[in-house]
Design brief:
There is one protein chain. This protein is of the alpha/beta class. 41% of the residues lie in helices and 16% in strands. The radius of gyration is 23 Å and the shape is globular.
Length: 577
């Protein structure tokens, strides 16, 4: 079939796997499922070590294809996104999983993060980043920890860690992965998670939107394909539906839309779906895990920020909006500020200035233009940049009424170049944190990620420090970031990534289950990442980093095999950014 996409959002696959091919793919991995499940741990390490240099070798062509598909000029700084969000994350995941498996082979379990503590409320936290001295040097000031579910003791959590590897002669299982269409590392790391954390053989159904990445993953993961542990499939929704219903597929993982999830689990909208939901009788009886998007809030605590802090944070928010043309489930989508914050107008001006310096992007994801028109029509909006052809302008919707019960922007993920802003009544920092937490939990759709920004000086006040800690605990999101983009939880890969565990099949929101989490921890409630208000040198993921296209390539080589002698060129490139 030929590929065709219109601005209103349809996309067909260039190549569709026929039914006999699909049956053959599932049969092939089914035949190897028990073998793979019982594969010695060191044999798994060897597979990952074999894959890592293949990922590196595919990198340049992988990035070039991604740039072509997304309308990014080859050799431009924006091309660095494809290095960071595609190849770097994939190779880092493979290496860290190999290291955890080596720990299992030697000691029976991976490391339990880098440091563990019991909170005053009795809950357990584990530091997971930086995971090495190299991490500490490359990400100065950035830290992350995992907060575990209430009521779990440290001994219970240690017993549950890497639970697949505690079973003797486990039965093999076949996982179907319905791949994401936006970020090329998502299907790759989903495969690595299902295979090397959960011990399952896989069929990866590549999304038509980023079908271009399939051949690179097939070559990079060739050792798994050659041994019959992994197969690839191509096509649209009909192919996905056939594989979901295949009798030899045991469970399903999907990254995409909650609407697609509900169609799979409950069937088409209508009385039959309503009856099934009421009876908690899903159409799909198989286990399904998912990551499904979010209306991602950025809460800015009222306080006195310096000009440098405001400008850094404005560029941080602009990065959340512009990265990958805003086709990210973790893209900042709504600013939540205090109505009485004296610097609000200044911050919005700086945000517009930052967005104005970011090149407009091809709106490559299906449906972007329709979503944009639906969410901006009849509103006061600020368009930034002059689009041409298949571009959309960066768009700020500056005055959204937080009291409106029917506000579409609170319950619809734009998944395009839009960020909105709303205000709350509290001007006191501690009271604002309480009100903002309640607003995000009760009014915004999604449970994936949220960000909080506040001056370090405020945390010196014990009451505000307690309010911040309580907000982190109370926010019903699987990832919370302080002063930085929550996407770091995804990109660092030692934290977990996924929706808050309150999700159910009936109300799935941002999805069920966690990925990444290379320490193989279980009983997770959320990951938290935090850092200073201003980081120097400029973070590699910032939209205005001038050398990230060169830095990204060096990072791939470094993550494949970290060595001290590789650091100076990395640092030099980072400083030039």
């Amino acid at each position: 079939m030929s590929q065709a996409m219109t601005m209103s959002g349809t996309l067909e696959s260039k190549k569709t796997s026929a039914r006999p091919e699909l049956d053959q793919a599932v049969a092939a991995v089914r035949a190897k499922a028990d073998e793979f499940a019982r594969l010695p741990v060191r044999a798994r390490v060897a597979l990952l070590r074999e894959i890592i240099p293949r990922i590196v070798a595919e990198g340049p062509a992988w990035v070039a294809a991604g740039c072509q598909a997304k309308g990014i000029a080859q050799g431009s700084p924006v091309a660095g996104e494809e290095w960071l969000a595609g190849v770097t994350i994939t190779v880092r995941t493979a290496r860290l999983l190999a290291e955890s498996l080596e720990s299992i082979a030697e000691r029976g379990k991976p490391s339990f993060g880098t440091k563990v503590r019991v909170r005053a409320d009795g809950r357990i936290e584990a530091d997971v980043f930086p995971a090495s001295t190299f991490d500490q040097l490359l990400f100065g000031g950035i830290k992350s920890h995992i907060l575990f579910e209430r009521g779990l003791s440290l001994s219970q959590l240690r017993d549950r860690q890497a639970s697949f590897y505690s079973h003797q002669n486990p039965e093999g299982r076949v996982a179907l992965i319905l791949g994401a269409g936006n970020v090329s590392s998502i299907p790759a790391t989903d495969v690595l998670d299902k295979m090397f954390v959960h011990g399952q053989v896989c069929v990866l159904k590549v999304n038509p939107v980023n079908e271009w990445v399939g051949p690179f993953l097939e070559r990079a993961f060739a050792p798994l394909v050659q041994r019959g542990y992994l197969r690839f499939a191509y096509g649209g929704g009909d192919v996905g539906a056939y594989l979901v219903g295949h009798t030899d597929v045991d469970e399903v993982h999907i990254t995409g839309s909650d609407k697609t999830h509900d169609l799979i689990v409950w069937g088409p909208p209508g009385p039959d779906r309503d009856r099934r939901k009421a009876a908690r009788d899903p159409l799909l009886k198989k286990k399904i895990t998912s990551e499904l998007g979010n209306v991602s809030p950025v809460m800015i605590v009222p306080g006195q920020y310096t000009d440098e802090q405001l400008w850094f944070q404005a560029r941080s928010v602009a990065t959340m909006v512009t990265n990958n043309a805003s086709f990210n489930c973790n893209a900042g989508k709504i600013l939540v500020t205090s109505k009485g914050w004296a610097q609000r107008g200044r911050f919005l001006d700086l945000l517009q200035k930052a967005l104005d310096s970011a090149p407009l992007r091809k709106a490559y994801y299906p449906g972007a233009f329709d979503r944009y028109a639906d969410l901006t029509g009849g509103r006061q909006i600020i368009k930034i940049g002059t689009p041409s052809g298949d571009q959309l302008p960066w768009t700020l919707i500056p005055e959204v009424d937080s009291s409106r019960a029917d506000e579409k922007l609170f319950v619809t993920e734009p998944f395009c170049a839009i960020i909105s802003a709303t205000t709350l009544s509290s001007s006191d920092p501690a009271a604002f944190l309480v009100e903002a937490t309640r607003f995000c939990n009760t009014r915004l759709w999604g449970t994936l990620n949220a960000a909080i920004t506040l001056p370090r000086e405020l945390e010196k006040d014990p009451a505000i420090a307690r309010a911040l800690d309580q907000a982190i605990v109370d926010l019903e999101y699987g990832n919370v970031a302080i002063n930085h983009w929550p996407a770091l939880c995804y990109g660092l890969v030692t934290p977990s990534w996924g929706g808050h565990p309150k999700a159910t099949l009936e109300d799935v929101q941002s999805g069920i289950g966690f990925i990444h989490n290379t320490f193989m921890l279980e009983g997770i409630e959320k990951s938290v990442v935090r850092g200073p208000l201003v980081v120097k040198p400029k973070p590699a993921w910032f939209f205005d980093h001038k050398t990230v296209h060169r830095l990204g390539k060096k990072l791939v080589d470094f993550e494949a095999e970290p060595k001290w002698w590789k650091l100076p060129p990395l640092v030099a490139e980072a400083v030039r950014g």
